[in-house]
Amino acid sequence: MTTIISKLRVPDYGRWAGQFEAGAKSREDFGVEVLAFGHDESDHHVAIVILRVESESKGRLLLENPILQKNLKDEGITPIEITIIEQ
């Protein structure tokens, strides 16, 4: 299993969180388990997401998905840091 920890700069955490929750079915269909998500304690414009996928290669496919990348760009969301932990 692989764990992905993503820190993202988001313009509006409430809007982002609603959109993130709405994508639950797509993540489930792709085999992604959400372990936790929220915002940085001191900066509500930094979202943190912890995901689990079956392999590093599947995690990279998810992160590099062109549709996901376009959606992030269109919403003004920028990655700060991505950590991949292979277990």
Characterization of this structure:
This protein is of the alpha+beta class and 87 residues long. The protein has a single domain, classed as Alpha-Beta Plaits (2-Layer Sandwich). 39% of the residues lie in helices and 37% in strands. It contains four helices and four strands, in the order E-H-H-E-E-H-H-E. Strands 2-3-1-4 form a four-stranded antiparallel sheet. It starts with a strand and ends with a strand.
Q: Helix/strand-derived class?
A: alpha+beta
| Major β-sheet strand ordering | 2-3-1-4
Main sheet makeup: 4 strands, antiparallel
Q: List the total number of helices.
A: 4
CATH class: Alpha Beta
Series of secondary-structure elements, N-terminal to C-terminal: EHHEEHHE
Beta-strand residue fraction: 35-45%
* Helix content, binned percent: 25-40%
CATH architectural group = 2-Layer Sandwich
Form type: globular
> What radius of gyration results from the CA coordinates?
12 Å
The poorly predicted ranges are none
Whole-number mean pLDDT: 93
Give the topology.
Elements: E1 2-9, H1 13-22, H2 24-30, E2 33-39, E3 46-53, H3 56-63, H4 66-74, E4 78-86
Antiparallel strand pairs: 1-3, 1-4, 2-3
